[in-house]
Write a structure and sequence with these properties.
It is built from 14 helices and 17 strands. The longest helix has 21 residues.
């Protein structure tokens, strides 16, 4: 039976999980793949910490370059993370004719065009299922299962940390800081959670999905990104009153000559299946012209769910090696000569419906003054809720709008925030509702 040798760079959480599956599940994998997959080298700067895995003598080393330069290794697993050393090692592996598996969404979102271009030139595979959605096979679904579909939209909960935090605020009414501390205590958030809670992790994943779905180059720089740190229990309570939940969504829509691509807190109706995705789970819906809407759902992070996707990629490459079919599926889903530079639509040009909350002094004429400014910018109010009686204290005024253009909304809110009757910066949350103004 043919032996396929694997080298792994980095043995942190996901690397340890991948090693555990490859070693403990060796017989099962062999029976499914038809080859013996051998973990020949594992490189990590920390070779002393017990990972709970028994490696064969000489397997665990502290020199990553020995792995990518080893002529006997067929597949390299990049589990280091980051965008500097990981990129250098990956490019060296590709130059040496090795196939690569990675979960590094930040690296692919920033340098994927260069990396996958190099791999295509060398005729080697770069597999990256684990980079988006953990154990959800969203990349395989787009590249293979939906190959006959023109994809028009994708909407996803792509960050488990944010989903956990928003679920805690929704279910328990706690403030953001408390929910974040709970996430850190449970191991769902890093000590420095900014990459997650500021929306960048979800944006990395969306940039990759856009390229796969629409045949465009990866473009992270033009994606609009907003995080969840400003979301309060008050806004979640108002959203519930209107029939919505608040989720951090990655939203993509193909507009023909451009693509909408944005990550931000979003109100979605209770009828939307994504509203029921709780805790640290991920989900993504894809709209295709043949399948209509489909949804994938599962754990987007964690040692074994992510490692499962890594090992699935290893198995795919191993099968291709056995059949001599490397390069059978284009790395970007589309053939290289069909990939285009499709621009991301400027956020200011996008029209949708909005939720506003103003902290305004409870005085006569306040509501009409705010509504007047909105009207000056072509923003029509759909509903209003105002709490409180006349006093010197600021009270919340909540408005839901009909469809309005983002640039007009920004201009109106800038004027409103400068009023002396407004005590704090207005809150804006965008709404995605299939029963909204587009069908009215």
């Amino acid at each position: 039976m043919k032996e396929i040798r694997i080298g792994m760079l980095g043995c942190g959480t996901v690397g340890t999980g991948a090693a555990r599956i490859l070693i403990n599940g060796a017989e099962l994998i062999q029976s499914r793949v038809g080859a013996k997959l051998t973990l020949k080298r594992v490189a990590d700067i920390d070779t002393e910490t017990d990972r709970g895995i028994r490696f064969e003598p000489g397997v665990f080393i502290n020199d990553a370059w020995r792995v990518v330069d080893d002529p006997e290794i067929d597949i390299v697993l990049e589990m280091i993370g980051g965008k500097t050393l990981a990129k250098d090692l990956m490019m060296r592996a590709i130059e040496n004719g090795k196939h690569v598996v990675t979960a590094n969404k930040a690296l692919l979102a920033s340098h994927g065009n260069e990396i996958l271009g190099a791999a295509t030139g060398k005729g080697v595979e770069v597999a990256y299922e684990a980079s988006v959605g953990g154990c959800m096979p969203i990349i395989k679904t787009i590249r293979e299962s939906l190959v006959g579909n023109r994809i028009s939209a994708m909407t996803g909960i792509l960050n488990g940390t944010c989903n956990y935090i928003l679920s805690r605020i929704t279910d328990e009414g706690v403030e953001f800081e408390t929910a974040l501390a709970q996430a850190q205590a449970e191991g769902f958030a890093e000590a420095d959670p900014s990459l997650d809670v500021d929306g960048f992790d979800a944006a990395h994943k969306l940039a990759i999905l856009n390229a796969l779905a629409y045949g465009m180059e990866i473009n992270l720089d033009d994606i609009t990104i907003e995080g969840i740190s400003s979301i309060t229990p008050m806004d979640i309570a108002f959203a519930r009153r209107f029939g919505y939940k608040i989720k951090l969504l990655a939203i993509s829509k193909h507009r023909g000559d451009s693509v909408e691509a944005r990550v931000h807190p979003t109100m979605i109706p209770f009828s939307n299946p994504l509203s029921n995705v709780g805790a640290n789970l991920n989900a993504v819906t894809v709209t295709g012209d043949a399948v209509d809407d489909i949804m994938l759902y599962g754990y987007g992070a964690g040692m074994l769910p992510t490692a499962s996707a890594v090992v699935g990629d290893v198995a795919d490459i191993a099968r291709n090696l056995l059949s001599g079919a490397a390069g059978r599926i284009p790395l970007f889903s589309y053939q290289p000569d069909r990939i285009q530079k499709i621009p991301v639509m400027p956020m200011d040009e996008i029209a949708m419906t909005y939720y506003f909350r103003f902290a305004a002094l409870d005085r006569p004429g306040v509501l009409s003054k705010i509504a007047g400014i909105l009207g000056d910018h072509g923003i029509s109010i759909k509903s209003v809720q105002q709490k409180g009686r006349q006093s010197e204290a600021a009270v919340p005024i909540v408005m839901m709008t009909h469809e309005a253009r983002e640039a007009d909304v920004k201009a109106a809110l800038s004027r409103i925030s400068s009023l002396d009757i407004v005590a704090d910066r207005p809150v804006l949350i965008r709404i995605e509702d299939e029963n909204g103004d587009e069908e009215m």
